[in-house]
């Protein structure tokens, strides 16, 4: 609560965070007329956001009504309880239906790379279309940075937001920031838009909020949950804190960021989503740490995390943490194990070897001439892994997987030794939890009432609950709710 504040700087709207959501919000505010400034804790030279590290995929909706129905169904628990209220789902669908044209209006050409939501049994899934931005996440952020600069929007790099400043009635007046060794008070006469990202690199928050620990992420290490404590101090309600867009990641002990695994040896961005990429000539299975398969390896990319979170209450153990990706010589020879167009590999933050041999020397990849030798090195029950191999190879011969219904075309025998394994951990792109927001992108308090002049966008309090709509959902929300937050913040009457 602010009393007799000395203001060091004044503008109309302050945006906290310079990822895709913050950039879109700031651009929208400026296009509507008001002055806006972006506050970013990273330096200009070291600026690397999760948007930068993404594959550059975003959802654009071809039918807003059908997409709203799809979202409402994947968010519905029962008639009285929803992960996200229908009104907010509907406005997401409405704004997402203009995502492609909004991006193309900036002068960028995008490519349709896939059609259909991740949950194909849900009515309205076919309203979801996935588009790829040229240059992937890096290209998208280059574009957005150019647009921000063209609008002469000031970006204060190296400036960490530490508190929201409010009047006695709870109206947000501005932001307290730290720049180098100075503490400054920034006045926002219209509104503050919060878009600082998630808490992927805050161990205490992950332990207390997510469904399983450890969980590792392939996004920006700058996402440490700073904004969560800020909005809580201002009275914000939180939602979706145990939800994340996550599956499996490779996590090396001596590298801080997770790697997205490329199970099929697919080379290139477009092939990843093409029909061609649905087949594979690389045999592999995924097991728990006791050598047992537990899922269809043709998994839903953003929900298999919940299968990993299974807890054995008798043995007080997470049997699937870590899991193991087990493959033979074909995949070892098919190129680097991580996805090369996603996460740290997009920026070559780690020089993964072409033949994976350096990583094997480091002990990240384990080799065994036989299933028995591999199990011994992994400290698995030998009989369990041998049975898993035997059963799986039999399923490949008969082209039927009675355990997990893996599609016949993907049943390729593990029969070309040596065999290899690498640990897989729960994790992937980002967390979803943060301050609850309404259909106007306003951050609300415990009673569901908007906190005056406070807005949110992006993964910071994402509207996605337990189920993620499809690949590209996060950038879709950045574009849709960035615009929504920017429009409504710009309409606020100035408060002095």
Verbal overview:
The structure is a single chain. The chain has helices spanning 20-32, 64-75, 86-96, 99-105, 136-150, 203-209, 226-233, 269-273, 304-308, 329-332, 357-361, 371-378, 382-398, 473-491; strands at 9-16, 36-39, 57-61, 76-78, 81-82, 111-115, 128-132, 154-156, 159-166, 172-179, 182-194, 216-217, 238-239, 244-249, 284-287, 323-327, 365-368, 419-431, 434-435, 442-444, 450-456. Helix 2 runs antiparallel to helix 3 (86-96). It has two domains: 9-243 and 431-491, FAD/NAD(P)-binding domain (3-Layer(bba) Sandwich); 245-428, Alpha-Beta Complex (Flavocytochrome C3, Chain A, domain 1), CATH 3.90.700. The longest helix is centred in the C-terminal third of the chain and has 19 residues, at 473-491. It is built from 14 helices and 21 strands.
